[in-house]
Amino acid sequence: MELARDTERAILGVETAAQVRSWVARHVRDHVGGTVESVLFSGGDIGAVFGLRLSDGREVVLKALRPGANARRLRAVVRAQNALASSGYGCARVLDGPSSTDGVFAIVEERLTCTPTGSPHEPAVRGAMAAALAAQINALRGMDGADLVQGGPAWSDWSVGAWPVPHDPIFDFTVPVPGYEWVDELADASAAVLRAAEGPAVVGHSDWVWQNVCVRDGTFVAAYDWDSLVYLPEPAVVGQCAGAFSQGSPVRPDAPTAAQVAAFLDDYERVRPFTPPERRVAEAAATWVRCYSARCQLDNLQRRGMEPPAGSFIEALST
Question: Can you give the residue ranges of the Aminoglycoside phosphotransferase domain (predicted)?
Answer without folding.
Answer: 47-274
